[in-house]
């Protein structure tokens, strides 16, 4: 992962401004998701579950997080770009924005000025208010892109970062063609809302509840129910103690679906230089 130099937000101490556009965007998605009550179908629910895993489990957890943010393993460029597109379809921002924010979170964990979603600013701030009260270091491209120079150098990632919202349009067309409005509402709105909150719980709940296996220099914790919702991301204390590891579930009962997927890619010869945990809690590289 690219080294990050010490930096504190110049906006520290200032009151962040509420973005009515962001409030309207997230509020509208939650409201439209409620229409799922009236447009319910088993196939629509199945689409929501499938895309939750494909865009969230593969796109965000495996792609944006373990592959792009931490470079915990390597895959061929064509596969990396394909996984990045899946992450973009999760509707959690472009890859440069997401990776930059996550790297800042690790570099300045729980720092009230420099960590974009610092848990010390309260549960709701770390859960979702950071997305509504916009701070320049987090949301202005000329500032956050310094934390992801490896992605910023590539035109493909710059394009995805700019046009990530546009990709929802062909997705909506495909969903409508396949199952009408039920598939659109469940495949985009219901899926997005549940995936958002699952991801946000990693920022909020796992810095408040759970157990600590490693003596990490923060309040990160392992929380089983968040891990079930996020394909292994809830073993957050493990992750903060060994951030380069592609494996977050250390004990045998710490279910880590994303790690299982990475191991499958490794066995298929599609992933190499995979950083794994040993039985002693250290890391080793699988070539």
Summarize the structure.
This protein has 287 residues and is mainly alpha-helical. It contains 13 helices and four strands. The strands form two sheets. A two-stranded antiparallel sheet has the order 1-2. A two-stranded antiparallel ribbon has the order 3-4.
Indicate the topology:
Elements: E1 17-18, H1 20-33, H2 42-69, H3 77-89, H4 95-107, H5 123-127, E2 133-134, H6 136-139, H7 141-144, H8 149-152, H9 155-163, H10 168-204, H11 224-229, H12 236-241, H13 257-267, E3 274-277, E4 283-286
Antiparallel strand pairs: 1-2, 3-4
Helix pairs in contact: 1-10, 2-3, 2-4, 2-10, 2-13, 3-9
Structure keywords:
single chain; 287 residues; two-stranded antiparallel sheet
What does this structure look like?
This protein has 287 residues and is mainly alpha-helical. The chain has one domain (17-286). It is built from 13 helices and four strands. The chain has helices at residues 20-33, 42-69, 77-89, 95-107, 123-127, 136-139, 141-144, 149-152, 155-163, 168-204, 224-229, 236-241, 257-267; strands spanning 17-18, 133-134, 274-277, 283-286. It has a two-stranded antiparallel ribbon. Helix 2 (42-69) packs across helix 3, helix 2 (42-69) packs across helix 4 (95-107) and helix 3 runs parallel beside helix 9. The radius of gyration is 18 Å and the shape is globular. 45% of the residues are buried. Mean pLDDT is 94; it is low at 1-12.
